[in-house]
Each structure stands twice: as structure tokens, then as C-alpha cells.
Automatic annotation (TrEMBL):
UniProt xrefs under Gene3D superfamilies: Glycogen Phosphorylase B (3.40.50.2000), Spore Coat Polysaccharide Biosynthesis Protein SpsA, Chain A (3.90.550.10)
Name the UniProt record assigns to this protein: Glycosyltransferase
Domain of life: Bacteria
Classification via InterPro entries: Glyco_trans_1 (IPR001296), Glyco_trans_2-like (IPR001173), Glycosyltransf_2 (IPR050834), Nucleotide-diphossugar_trans (IPR029044)
Domain called Glycosyltransferase 2-like: residue spans: 451-605
Length: 858
């Protein structure tokens, strides 16, 4: 998961801006991205909300949106609604900033720093700005631009900001002149930035924007879109009319809008007065403009329609989740015969209520506002339209047209069906999703070649050294790689340490990404998915090969680790590169038996990795992003332990098996070295000795080995050393000598592999693999767990010969196969292979898993 910061310059809990933010943010949410929204209370000076705390606003929005704000803004001395209004009047209105210049500059810098601190705290990776160009608060806008530039440079991000203007000077009350006249000389122009992609709602808005700001290079058209689902009466909303005192049989006109003078709700009151028996429902916040609300109530009384007009307060947005408490705009539409949008001529840009009516299958009536034709009329949508340039209030011709539509159900149905079909074509969700996919903001510099993914959980003690080793990589420029630290619910100072490191080392991009589901597999997948998605929008570098690299927070990488790994991957053209892993011998001084068991395992691994490429271990490997995506990324599997589902530990191995099974090559990079933290042995030595380091009975899960008690520092007894070695070699041999050829039998035709096994053994292994595959009726052995049974069977059948080859290649001290399970003592030799099958297929007891150690030990 990563985080999106949305900021609305509207300063209201529900408006067209907020509704459009919700729709756009849903696409990010569905990608697993956390969503934060600042409603802009601390920006707009004319909404009576400056510094007002949030109360019930969250109830109007989907639960996946976290209402947020830059809390520290309230403490900035001098920053007030009075100052914002003064700047708008003097600086924008008259172009005189002489009196306020120093104050504005100081406040801009302070605001910028507060914004940066908030984004850093949350780990923001995407920003969505709604209406930031409209110069209601140029101090905040300038601070936002500066924050974007500094944040983008600090974290080496790509285009991580989507800046959408719903209103601009020529669309928002141009007749008032409060912003001046075109070309609006005192309004700050939109900044051309590598970090910002601007969005206009339609072609006319784009044309006018470029006429005003021709320097912009990233400006796209992204129309508002709507969820096309016909409104209907359901058990949830059946009581809507009764709850608001509206008789069931009367015609109902819906008006959902802000209650402000510019929306011209007075026109609806005059319309209702001319339509006896018809009711009007106005959904909007009466407290936003108390004077206008009072005026409308008095007008309703003077027109004699107060009993037919319901001011219903705020409703949840049109696209609010079904089942939320209270009513939404969609519930209102289920009971309405018409939607009204009789707004001011020069106030609207898009007219969302019309789009929402169309998408809900409800006819609408509208005024001919300035951009109506550009958005709806020219596309062929049908509706009664009031020409407010000729008639300020509904005239009789317009009233008659509306009355006919209210009384003629067939005409309403045909009009609604026509508009609904057109709406799907022009404003369907799919169009927005396609455009967002093209614009999907990938905050990564175009020179970045690799992301190092580092899952962490309470690693405060180890993290400084790990990050330092990643920072001081030799042979590779820091602009060519980044670090993606995935925090898996740490409760210590892990995240604070990471953020402090990022601040102190700005030349290495470091992203902190949260993953709420516990488990290193989940964290690794989140980090790699995050990096993969972002790498595809690196500008000029988007088509270059990109590598996803896994590291471990309790291990140390050598100074040449990354450069050697990337160089090996480039020269070998393999899909996966596997590192060399080692322990520091000095840590085991005084424990020669334990060190002997470890070093023999590592020697065996070096031989088989050189032959087969090995399999990735989370401690250090790289994978080509395209190969990663082709196989579906890291897959999380779950097992039952003590009645609860837990995620399977071996995601790295299983991922490598998927890649190998897809026909891709795995390469061993012996010069790319990772030092394993000895705590894996020190604090789990008893489990290592008994082969239960990661569970038993087939349950393989991560255990936390950071325990309070001191590590065992004495050497193993001879019996313990033998048992530890036997479990290590039993775990190693099926995985590293049998599994590669099981997955890729063509390896048995390779000269080096034939030399290792010997021609006769290689031939028999190939034949036996084909027999087992046919007997088990499998198409391949890549699905998780499906390879274990055949690996175990082949181990038992060929153990003596396999160990002979290891002794010949690695050294005589490898010895002979450990004793067979006692259950084979009474099995006749001629039936040995038969009972090996039963033993390995017995999933109920898990005995085979326990025999083989149930996970790697060294």
C-alpha cells in the first residue's frame, strides 16, 4: 500500500469537487492505495469553515477515505481568513502586493514546510489537487507548488501530482471581475513541472487554459465520469419520502446542490409555484450560506410553496457505498421524477447533477449555462432548457415543457433511456479508468533501474546498519536505484529511523510503504507490486529493463552487492538473479561443530547454485519486472495453524518456482554477497537441531527470533551436530538437486549437469520424472506444494546416488544419506518405491514434512 493525498480548494464537505475526488480516488483505492482527503476548510476564506474541526463530515464519504488536514496550519501566526480575503482583493483584484509581499512570502514558506512535514509523516506518494489554480488563496497555492517541487526532488519522484481545475477565472463568475480580466495578469499561472500532470474537464477548458498558459506541456482532458446504475426504490430507501414528509403519489423534482446565491435555487421555487401539486427536494447544507437559506425560505413562503419544498440537508454523494447509514443522492433520485439544475449562466463548468441524473436513468431540466452545450448539449442529450439570457426566471413555455414531462411517463422513460445510453458512451467509468491508467502517477525518476524492497517489522536495532550498507553501495550511482521499505506494523522506532535516514540522505530515494497484513510474504509482495507499477512511468526510461530486488532487514549486503547482481543479470539475461549468502566465521569461533554443519551446507549450495542457478531467497535476489508481472507476482498462500489462517513462509521459493516453471532462466551471481544475521541460528538453535526452525507438520511460517533471553553460545554436542547436519542436508538435497531438474527436465541435457550427475543417473532421473508426472496426472509442478511430493519421492529413490555425487563434487565430508524413517524398516525392498509414494503422499500426518526438516535451517 501507498498513500494518496487529496486536497479540495472548495472548503465544503460535499460539493462537485469532493464528489469527483471520491470517484477518482476510488481507482487508487482499488489498487490498494490509502486515501487521505483535506476538505480545504483552512484554504477558502468565504465558507465560514476556516480552522473549523471536522465533526460528521466523514459520514458522508466512503469509509476508505480518511479525512485529514495540515493540522499545524492553525498555529501559523498571521495566517487567517481576513488575510486571505485581503490578498484576494488587493493582490489579485488590484494587482498591488507592495504592502503584503513580505508577509505572503513568509507565510508561503511556513505553509510549504507544514505541508512537507505532513506528507513525509504519511508517506505520501500521490497527490490529487482539486481547483488549486482558482486564486482564492494564492498563499496556499504557492506553498503547495513549492512543496510539490521540494518533495518531488527530495524523493526523486516522477509525475506524482494530478492537478484538476473544475473552475477557472472564465468559468467562475467572470462578470463579477473579482479576478480581473483576461489574461488575468495578477493570478499565478499554473507551473510547468515534471511532477505535475494537469487535467481539464473538457476540450473547451483545455483550449482556454492553453490560451492563458501556453507553456504547459502536460495537460489532458479527463471528463467527469459517473457510475451508470439506474436508481430504484429498494428496501434501504423505501422510506425516503415518508422520512421527509413527501406524499408517495405526488411528482417530485430533485435539486442537489450547495445552497449559495450562484446556484439560483430561487428559480426552482418559481418553477414549483407554477406546477401545482409538485414537490421540490433541495439537498444541500443550509449552514454554508445562512443568508441565502433564509432568503429562500422567505421566498418559498411568499410564493405559497413552503409546504411543497423540503430542504433536506446534506445527503451522501451519488456514488456512496450501498448500505451506509442515512440517505444518499441516489436514494433521492430513486423517488424523483426529474432533476433540476437551473444554475447561473456564468458559474458552472461541468454540471455534475446533470451527469448523475443521466447515469441514474432520471430525466433532467437545466438552465442554458455557459458551458452546457460544450459538455452536454452538443453531444445530443435531451432536456427542457431554460435560456437564462432571455428569461431570468422560468417562463410559461419552459413551465409547460416541464409539466408535460412530469405527467407523461412514456416521454420521461424515452428521454431517460436516450440520455442513459449516450451517458455510458461519453461519461462511463471505463473511460476515466483508461485515461487514469495512462496518467497513473508513477513517482520514479527515469534513470532508476532497480528498486530494493526491504520488508521490516520492529527492526529499529538493525535498520541503521542495513540502510547504511544500502546507501554505500559501490559501482552504481545512487540515482540508478531506490529503496522501498515496507513497514509490516512495527511498534518500535523502525519507521521514524527510516524517515530520518531519508531526510539525512536525500540523494538516495527511500519510500516507506505500509502493509497492514502481518507476514513477510505480504510485505515483500506489496513492495514489489508498488515498485513494478511505478517503474512503468519513468518517462524516457519506461521501456528499459527494470529489476525488483529483495533484501532482508536483518542481513548485511556487501558494498558491491547491488552492482554485481545487476551486472550479472545484464550479462546473463536471466529473469532472476540469486545472490551468494554467507555467515561471518568469526561469529562461530569456539563452536567448531556448529560451524562445520553450516559450512558444509554452504559448500553444497555453492555447487548446486552454480549448476542450476538456485532459487531466490528473500535475503537477496533480483527479478526482471516483466517476468515478475507475467507470472502474477508473488503469490500468498495460507495454512491453518491452531485454528487460524497464517500465510505461508516460502513465498520467495515458490515465486522462483513459478518463474522457473514459466521457462525463464535463474542465474547465480556469486560475487553479489549477503551476510546472514547469525541470530537465525543463535536464537533458534534447538529448533535448528531438531529440524523444526519454521514449524512442523507441514506448517511453514515465520517465527520471531528476536527474543529477550541470551543466545546459546556453546558448541553443539557431537549428537546435536550430527542431527543438525542431517536435517540441513535432508532439507537441502530435495530443494537444490532434485527440484531444479523436476521443474526443468531439459537441464539434464546440459553438459555440466550431466557431468555432475553422471550420464547414467541423469538419464534415469529424467525417465523417472516423466513417469511420476504421468502417474500424478499433473501438467507441471509449479503450483505451491505440488512439487514437494515428487521431490521427496525422488530423494528417497535416488538418495544413495545423489549423495555419492555430492561427495565426489563437494567433498567426502558430505557423507551418506541420513537414516530412513523407521516406518520403512518392515517394507520389503521390492515394494520400497511403492511405500515411498504412500509416505510422501500422506498429507494427513505431515510426517514427510517433519522428516525433511520443514523448511531451511542454515
Amino acid at each position: 500500500m501507498v498513500a494518496l493525498w487529496g486536497i479540495s480548494f472548495d472548503g465544503t464537505p460535499i460539493s462537485g469537487l469532493v464528489v469527483e475526488f471520491v470517484k477518482t480516488a476510488r481507482h487508487f483505492h482499488q489498487r490498494g492505495i490509502r486515501v487521505h482527503l483535506d476538505l480545504g476548510y483552512d484554504i477558502k476564506a468565504d465558507k465560514n469553515a476556516f480552522f473549523r474541526p471536522y465533526t460528521d463530515e466523514a459520514d458522508l464519504l466512503p469509509e476508505w477515505i480518511a479525512l485529514d488536514r495540515i493540522e499545524a496550519v492553525q498555529g501559523i501566526e498571521g495566517y487567517s481568513p481576513e488575510l486571505v480575503s485581503t490578498v484576494l482583493a488587493e493582490v489579485i483584484g488590484r494587482g498591488d502586493d507592495s504592502r503584503l509581499r513580505s508577509v505572503m512570502n513568509s507565510l508561503t514558506a511556513t505553509l510549504r514546510d507544514r505541508i512537507l512535514a505532513k506528507w513525509t509523516q504519511l508517506g505520501i506518494s500521490f497527490v490529487l489537487v482539486e481547483n488549486g489554480t482558482l486564486p482564492e488563496n494564492v498563499i496556499y497555492t504557492r506553498a503547495l507548488y513549492q512543496a510539490i517541487e521540494e518533495y518531488g526532488n527530495r524523493h526523486r519522484l516522477g509525475c506524482f501530482v494530478l492537478w484538476r481545475d473544475h473552475d477557472l477565472m472564465w468559468q467562475s463568475e467572470p462578470s463579477s471581475g473579482k479576478y480581473g480580466r483576461f489574461p488575468y495578469p495578477h493570478t499565478p499561472l499554473p507551473v510547468h513541472s515534471p511532477f505535475i500532470h494537469y487535467v481539464a474537464l473538457h476540450e473547451e477548458a483545455k483550449r482556454r487554459t492553453l490560451e492563458w498558459a501556453p507553456h504547459l506541456r502536460r495537460l489532458s482532458v479527463l471528463p467527469n465520469t459517473f457510475t451508470h446504475r439506474r436508481a430504484e426504490v429498494t428496501p434501504h430507501n423505501a422510506g425516503f419520502r415518508a422520512a421527509h414528509g413527501i406524499p408517495e403519489h405526488v411528482p417530485l423534482i430533485a435539486r442537489f446542490t450547495r445552497i449559495v446565491p450562484q446556484k439560483r435555487i430561487d428559480r426552482d421555487l418559481h418553477l414549483i409555484a407554477a406546477l401545482p401539486g409538485t414537490h421540490l427536494f433541495v439537498a444541500g447544507d443550509p449552514a454554508e450560506h445562512p443568508g441565502e437559506f433564509t432568503r429562500l425560505r422567505e421566498l418559498a413562503g411568499s410564493l405559497g410553496v413552503r409546504d411543497r419544498v423540503v430542504f433536506g440537508g446534506r445527503l451522501a454523494p451519488h456514488d456512496a457505498e450501498v448500505g451506509r447509514p442515512g440517505y444518499s443522492v441516489r436514494d433521492l433520485l430513486a423517488h424523483a421524477q426529474l432533476v433540476s439544475f437551473l444554475t447561473s449562466y456564468d458559474y458552472e463548468s461541468y454540471g455534475n447533477p446533470i451527469g448523475e441524473a443521466i447515469a441514474s436513468g432520471v430525466p433532467y431540466v437545466t438552465s442554458h449555462y455557459e458551458l452546457y452545450q460544450a459538455v452536454y448539449g452538443d453531444k445530443g442529450f435531451r432536456a427542457p432548457v431554460l435560456d437564462v439570457r432571455r428569461h431570468d426566471l422560468p417562463d410559461m413555455s419552459f413551465v409547460d415543457e416541464v409539466a408535460e414531462l412530469l405527467t407523461d411517463e412514456t416521454k420521461r422513460a424515452k428521454m431517460a433511456e436516450h440520455n442513459y445510453a449516450l451517458g455510458q458512451r461519453h461519461f462511463g467509468e471505463g473511460r476515466a479508468e483508461r485515461l487514469l491508467d495512462e496518467l497513473f502517477l508513477a513517482p520514479m525518476g527515469e534513470r532508476t533501474l532497480a528498486s530494493v524492497v526491504l520488508p521490516v517489522y520492529n527492526e529499529a536495532a538493525n535498520l541503521p546498519a542495513v540502510l547504511d550498507s544500502l546507501y554505500h553501495q559501490r559501482g552504481i550511482d545512487r540515482s540508478a536505484y531506490e529503496v522501498v521499505l515496507v513497514d509490516n506494523n512495527s511498534t518500535d522506532d523502525t519507521v521514524a529511523i527510516a524517515r530520518r535516514f531519508a531526510e539525512e540522505h536525500p540523494d538516495l530515494a527511500l519510500h516507506v510503504v505500509p502493509e497492514p497484513e502481518q507476514g513477510v510474504a505480504c510485505a515483500r509482495r506489496t513492495g514489489m507490486d508498488f515498485a513494478s507499477a511505478r517503474s512503468k512511468n519513468r518517462g524516457a526510461g519506461a521501456d528499459e529493463r527494470f529489476l525488483l530486488v529483495s533484501a532482508d532487514a536483518d542481513c548485511r549486503v556487501d558494498p558491491g552487492w547491488l552492482a554485481e547482481l545487476l551486472a550479472a543479470m545484464e550479462s546473463g539475461k536471466a529473469a532472476i538473479g540469486v545472490c551468494d549468502y554467507y555467515y561471518a566465521p568469526e561469529h562461530f569461533q569456539g563452536r567448531p561443530r556448529l560451524w562445520d554443519a553450516i559450512s558444509r551446507t554452504l559448500r553444497c549450495r555453492a555447487v548446486t547454485f552454480a549448476l542450476f542457478g538456485g532459487f531466490p531467497d528473500g535475503k537477496g535476489f533480483a527479478v526482471d519486472r516483466d517476468a515478475y508481472d507475467r507470472v502474477g507476482g508473488i503469490e500468498i498462500f495460507y495454512q491453518l495453524r491452531n485454528g487460524k489462517f497464517v500465510n505461508h513462509l516460502s513465498d520467495d521459493w515458490d515465486f522462483g518456482i513459478k518463474v522457473r516453471g514459466s521457462g525463464e532462466e535463474i542465474l547465480y551471481a556469486p560475487k553479489s554477497r549477503v551476510e546472514i544475521n547469525p541470530r537465525r541460528v543463535d536464537h533458534a538453535i534447538d529448533e535448528v537441531i531438531t529440524g523444526r526452525a519454521y514449524g512442523s507438520d507441514g506448517i511453514i511460517v515465520m517465527r520471531d527470533i528476536r527474543v529477550e533471553e541470551p543466545a546459546r553460545e556453546t558448541d553443539l554436542t557431537e549428537a546435536e551436530a550430527l542431527q543438525a547436519w542431517e536435517f540441513s542436508i535432508k532439507d537441502f538435497t530435495p530443494k537444490n538437486t532434485v527440484l531444479p531438474v523436476l521443474l526443468t527436465p531439459s537441464l539434464l541435457d546440459d553438459d555440466a549437469v550431466i557431468e555432475f550427475f553422471g550420464p547414467e543417473l541423469a538419464e534415469r532421473l529424467g525417465r523417472r520424472i516423466a513417469e511420476i508426472k504421468d502417474e500424478m496426472r499433473v501438467t507441471d509442478f509449479t503450483p505451491i506444494h505440488s512439487y514437494k511430493t515428487p521431490c521427496y519421492r525422488l530423494y528417497f529413490e535416488f538418495a544413495d546416488e545423489l549423495f555419492a555425487r555430492l561427495r565426489a563434487t563437494v567433498g567426502e565430508d558430505i557423507g551418506y544419506p541420513p537414516p530412513l524413517p523407521s516406518c520403512f524398516d518392515d517394507v520389503p525392498p521390492e515394494r520400497f518405491t511403492e511405500f515411498v509414494k504412500y509416505y510422501c503422499e500422506d498429507r494427513e500426518s505431515g510426517d514427510a514434512h517433519n522428516y525433511f526438516g520443514n523448511g531451511g535451517v542454515f
